[in-house]
Amino acid sequence: MQFADERPRATLPAQGATTAACAHCGLHVPAALVEPEADEQYCCSGCRAVRATLLQSGLGDYYDLRARFDDGANREPARGSRRSYATFDREVFLAEHVTVVEGTARVELLLEGVRCAACVWLVEKLPRCMPGVLSTELRLRDARLSLVYDPARVALSEVAARLDALGYPVHPARGTSQEDLGKRSERRLLVDLGVAAVCAGNAMLVAFALYSGQAGAAGQGSDLAPDHAALFRWTGLVLGWVSLLWPGRRFLLGALGAARARVANLDVPISIALVAGALAGTWNTVAARGESYFDSLTVLVFLLLAGRYVQARQQRFATDSVNLTRALTPVGCLVVRERDGVEVTEEVTLREVTAGDLVLVRSGEPLPADGVVERGASRIDRALLTGESEPVTVGVGDAVHAGSQNVGGALHVRVSDVGAASRIGRLMGLVQQGLTEKPPIERFTDRIAGWFVVIVTTLSLGTFAAWCALSSVGVAVDHTVALLIVACPCALGLATPLTLAVAVGRAARQGLLVKDSAVFERLARGGRLLLDKTGTITRGAPALVDWVGDRGLRGAVAALEARSQHPIARALCKALEADAVVGVHAADVRELLDGGVVGQVGGDTVRVGSLEHLAAHGAAPLPELRREAVALEARGRTVVGVARNGRCAAILGLVDAPRDDAQASIAALRARGFVPEVLSGDVQGAVARVAREVGLEADQARGSIEPEGKLARVRELAARGEPVVMVGDGVNDAAALAAADVGVAVHGGAEASLAAADAYSARPGLTPLVELVDLSRRTVATIRRNLALSLVYNGVAVTLAMAGYVEPLTAAILMPLSSASVLALALVSIHGGRRPRPPEVTPCL
Amino acid sequence: MSVIFIVLPLALVLGGGALAAFLWAVRGGQFDDLETPAIRIALEDDVRDPS
């Protein structure tokens, strides 16, 4: 739980605020919730419930374990959602997610709130305390639980509810087929790596025998017995070809693909070296003379694959984490059906909802489909869908859309469109289109590879011609092959993926999940930076900025609002945290549907709500305060009044203000070569005001832009050849995120934006983006330094080869040596440098 | 030294055996999660201090 870093002007001194730590999560307990007489304090009811469950189940050891494993860096309150999980027992759900083999069912679930080894212990204790659960295996990296249970003895919903009670809300693992695909391709890479390792090891073994035999013979043939030499040569030959055709096929196929597409990549020079070496080695083996190059080739294949494996693994870690975040959208909703004349509410999966159904959307729930309100009145937060920062009021007959959030009272909605036909579905269509139209990524190493091929080919032709003229064709072939092998950019091919892997891993530790490592190259260049307003520059939620009237009420308001979950109540709680007084509690709190909350605080009746609400309850503000209220409204504030004992005593102004780090971050990004611009679906006035506050010119702020408009702007800039970086959180940004050169989704964003973006920041605000840009610049600088160094190596080696001084043994030693040194330099330089500041806020997925 | 004609193929067979074991482990999913098993071993039942 984060507390407002922006204090309202003129705070009163905190009165008797003591520090209390939550007995479950260890976080600070807001003063308004501290109960002086209780032994244990809780920051929220979720923590209280989880601790009670743990102690009752005899799982109190969890706390000892956690003290041992968790450094306390990313504590957060318990997340128990206390949902019913009835959807998990629906036929449709079971058919989609659960596989049953011989009476035991297996399902993959994702858990929220998993942080350390103690969570693994707790979750894996489940079979002991729940009959019917056969095994639970939790993977810490991506909080994925493999659950095996006996469907005859326990229902999946019961298991889910139990996990939820332990503080781990459960979600079905979606995109399993894609995940399986990733897992299978990683396993295949590992298999190739194993084969390459065996070939390399044995090829070196026989090569060692050949080399030492040669050394003993002092230049006049080998002192190995001819039949032994032949055995070694032919063994090396077989191993070399196995290595080349099995694990090495990755490079050959990559090069072939590049050649077909008439582009170059690093596979091309690597393949040239491999094929040239293999052919020359085969010729020499058959002719029983000269050198076989298979030891160098197999080692080369092994090292390059090792680099690729490490990169693939890091990359999958980042992708898995993004998937976890994506899975946090609900799978079920409540459908109201008439049965025997009685209305029954049923929890069903989203797939079962069809047009014409009546769904019940409770307060705080997202809308499952597009439709028309049939009963009830509420406020709908459409920030993720349209970028509007203020929730809108809806009543009977109003159209509502999937992807927005109900923040007021319960609504009955008659569904008109579901899935792909809904507005969000159509936006997802645009996202797909954006992704397919995205220009292919031209990697830095690919650009270099093109030049590499040209230069190496020219040099080898020259060498061949020169040695043909000077000596015999046989000598010319030998020297040319030696040149082709030493010119292989193996240092670059090994160091680049490892540098990127380190960068991806490092970004992930800072809460930045990079789905595609090409992001680093693009962010380092700078370019046009398109920023969404709501949720990206601003908090996306109102914050208290004005307080007019009686300041003595601050403590009372804090106590009252601590009991409410309304967005405005949460904003007030955050802002008034310092004013809350220990022991002062609100009693008899009632939240009223017409936009207010009322309760007893210290003998007074305190009412907080909209001015209409106050007026309706006989507490309309006096003219003086009313004038203030009108002035605040004119400045774009949401106005809330506070009444004590039926008299309006204070007027509060709330606004979706820019985050504290916004201005500094935008300045920092400017200094790194970006041209910022704000694109928002919110009204022009609000956008211009926010833009001014963060130091942007008026012409860099565009309001009232539809999702299509954002996409059009990205395309327009891209057509001009400008690199475009788009940062956003909403569904309305998703298409633009997909189409931009780099799309960055920020904390709290919609699933659609996560699917479309190339990178995701698990921390709010723009500071992480600045860190990502810095990391990108450092990564690209390191890659360039690697390139320079490996070019020096290659330059020296090629010169020696052209002059005919490179023996195969020299090549065999020189190549791994160059790789190792470049690699060492790469790792040192990316780990060194300026250490990033530790995150100021806890990452919350 | 004709023993080399037996020893070298033998070395290859041993290497092949190790490779087969490795492939079996990979296909069985033993390399899918390199993190959790490492801590799971520290989590056996007797976590409570004897005191």
> Which structural class matches the secondary elements of chain B?
mainly alpha
Q: Roughly how many Å is the radius of gyration of chain A?
A: 33 Å
End-to-end span of chain A in angstroms? 12 Å
- Please report which band the strand proportion of chain B falls in: under 5%, 5-15%, 15-25%, 25-35%, 35-45% or over 45%: under 5%
Low-confidence stretches of chain B: 47-51
Largest sheet of chain B: none
How far apart lie the N and C ends of chain B?
65 Å
Shape of chain B: elongated
List the helices and strands and how they pair.
The complex is a heterodimer of chains A (845) and B (51).
Chain A (H helix, E strand, L loop, with lengths): L44 H12 L4 H9 L21 H7 E4 L2 E8 L5 H8 L1 H4 L3 E7 L4 E6 L6 H10 L4 E3 L3 H41 L9 H20 L3 H12 L6 H21 L6 H33 L5 E8 L2 E8 L8 E4 L8 E6 L2 E4 L1 H4 L5 E3 L4 E2 L4 E2 L4 E7 L5 H14 L7 H27 L2 H14 L3 H20 L2 E3 L3 H8 L1 E6 H5 L5 E7 L4 H8 L5 H9 L10 E7 L3 E6 L2 E6 L1 H6 L6 H12 L3 E7 L2 E9 L6 H10 L2 E6 L4 H10 L7 E2 L4 H13 L4 E5 L2 H9 L2 E4 L5 H6 L2 E3 L5 H36 L5 H24 L14
Parallel strand pairs in A: 16-23, 16-25, 23-24, 25-26, 26-27
Antiparallel strand pairs in A: 1-2, 2-4, 2-5, 3-4, 6-7, 6-8, 8-14, 9-12, 9-14, 10-11, 10-13, 15-27, 17-22, 18-19, 19-20, 20-21, 21-22
Helix pairs in contact in A: 2-4, 7-8, 7-11, 8-10, 8-11, 9-10, 10-15, 11-16, 11-29, 13-26, 14-15, 15-28, 16-28, 16-29, 17-28, 19-20, 23-28, 25-26, 28-29
Chain B lengths: L3 H24 L8 H5 L11
